[in-house]
Amino acid sequence: MKRGDLFRILWTLLYAAHSQGILNSDSRDPRHDPAVRPMAVAKIPPPIPDSGGSLPDLCDAIDFGPNVIIFDSSMSNTFIQSQIDSVFQIQEANQFGSQRYALFFKPGNYSLNAQLGFYTTILGLGTSPDAVTITGGVNSLAAWFEDNATQNFWRGVENIAIKPTVYGNNTIWATSQGTWLRRVHVNGTLWLFDYISPGPNNWSSGGFIADSVVDIEVQSGSQQQYLTRNTDLTKWEGQLWNMVFVGDLNPPNGTWPSSPFSIIQKTPVIREKPYLTFDSSTFSVVVPPLKTHSQGPSWTAPGKCENDATSIPLNRFYIAKPNVGSYVHKFLVVNVEAVGPENPYYISPSFFCFCFFSHARAQNIPYNT
To answer: Exposure pattern of 39-59 as b/e (b: 16+ CB <10 Å)?
Structure first.
């Protein structure tokens, strides 16, 4: 695909959204009632001046940036632990800081005690969660805030197996909003509040688990509300205000409003989040298939999901850095005047958008057909 074709595609999509009112103020929404506020219409930004520099190209060199730390099992556990501890010392209470970290683990077995602070993500790079196994602990506690996890935001764990030993067979994930466990296998009990750290309370308030397995049980404790989806819970203990279960195996008994549980037996339609893998020398983005009326995790039966997934080499993506923002802007808006609704275009399955690593925290955006 030529770059000019891409510009026309993007402009066509923007024009269609505009013409359908997606980008316009909607008079059906009272927030946009002309009697309440002036009608506003989103505008397409004009092309920026062309400096003459070439646009960035896709290439084989993979550079995730300085704040993505990649580990493999040939490294000593002592070295890896020191790196994790250094990140945690920076991020434990860094709620309003600008630092962001992603910790990538290539397939293998590790013995570690990984604690997660703000704006930190741990990601396994295997084709299944069990391909990256951490024995010891992957935990989020609230010692920094006197055992109160109601401000433990912005952290996540993806695509790994945890064999807990630090706190017995317990993994402690004491968090609130803006957190997630996704494609995680907990070989033990999962505690959703902090019963370890000293403090006057052990409050916690919200979180999200998807496409995961907990072998023994989930203890929700002080959690006020929670959402789980397509997860094998084995057993759920605890209730408070509002717990939602969608497409889970072994959800608790009870029905709203007599209990705080809202249970939807099967997920109507979902495509699991794409995930990054590493095989020998190649990074790839795996795009799971669309599922309808699904229940339970996608990866527990061999080949259940992976056989239908699409694997895309990472060199088909452009990894944008903060210093190439002007190039990305130029890529998206230059020559938009050449496209109109009379020139329909489609996005080829061979084309994939950018991987954005702002301060090296990843958001993968492949185009799914």
So the answer is: eeeeeeeeeeeeeeeeebeee
Type of residue numbered 170: N
CA 185 – CA 345 distance, rounded (Å): 42
Could you tell me the sign of the dihedral formed by the alpha carbons of 38, 44, 50, 51, in that order? positive
Find the helix or strand (DSSP H, E) in which 191 lies: strand 189-191
Sort strands 267-271 and 179-186 into parallel, antiparallel or unpaired. unpaired
All structural domains of the chain with their residue ranges: 3-32+42-58+317-364, 68-270
- What is the residue-wise DSSP string for 55-68? PP---S-----TTE
Q: How far is CA 313 from CA 42, 125, 128, 277, 278, in A?
A: 36, 13, 17, 9, 10
Q: ∠ at Cα 58 (7, 344), nearest 5°?
A: 25
Q: Distances in Å between the alpha carbon of 232 and those of 58, 102, 108, 179?
A: 39, 26, 24, 19
pLDDT tens-place string over residues 286-329: 999 999 999 999 998 755 555 678 898 988 877 777 666 565 55
| 68-270 to CATH, choices 2.40.440.10, 2.160.20.10, 3.40.50.2000, 2.40.170.20 | 2.160.20.10
Cα gap 117→94, rounded to integer Å = 8
Q: What are phi and psi of 104, to 5 degrees?
A: -95, 135
- Residues found in the chain: 369
pLDDT tens, position by position, 94-135: 999 999 999 999 999 999 999 999 999 999 999 999 999 999
What is the CA 185 to chain-centroid distance, rounded?
16
Locate tokens 């890896």: which residue?
A: 80
Angstrom CA distances, 41 to 12, 19, 23, 44, 301, stand at 18, 11, 7, 10, 49
Q: What is the pTM of this model?
A: 0.76
